[in-house]
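Q: I have two molecules that I believe assemble together. Could you output structure tokens for the complex as a whole instead of separate predictions?
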Amino acid sequence: AQTVTQSQPEMSVQEAETVTLSCTYDTSESDYYLFWYKQPPSRQMILVIRQEAYKQQNATENRFSVNFQKAAKSFSLKISDSQLGDAAMYFCAYGGNTGKLIFGQGTTLQVKP
Amino acid sequence: EAGVAQSPRYKIIEKRQSVAFWCNPISGHATLYWYQQILGQGPKLLIQFQNNGVVDDSQLPKDRFSAERLKGVDSTLKIQPAKLEDSAVYLCASSLDGRAETQYFGPGTRLLVL
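A: Yes, here they are, computed for all two components at once.
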């Protein structure tokens, strides 16, 4: 069975600084997808970024980028130039053959002005 | 483009009562998911539909939970009877066609069982 682990329950960053959120996963599948979702206090889950496992190039979306290490089964999210609106719970998620998502426990990000 | 709609947003019931949640996915999305998110945890899949057929309901407590997606569009999730441990946020998500497609989430229904 696939598992996703986020080992940082809480992180904080100063506004305009950079922060990295960690995620590791375990799977025996060779073809899969990885996602980072953001969940603000209003609880609407929003996609931040996605990575196809077959792509070697790390995904980037504006201030958000990932460091995908397939052999190490690691998928970290880097947020550059942090903004107050980035404060939220961030979930790492694995999408495999069936389409369902398996989520990590989440990391609460606090952004300090 | 309208997003995933869910109702109600909040529901408070007493244990042993029944409750139903409704979800309307993004137009044209064939796959619909119901997730349960207990406070402080990541969402966990309850059931996955492809059009009006069930793809995965292995984590659905079938003695008390039921779900349907008539006509392959809207979906209803029901709990009967509710237990205290059912207190959670119930998230509905949809995607174009299952695997590899990005899932879009609704705002969720927050359920409190007293």
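A: One point stands out. The longest strand of chain B covers residues 88-95.
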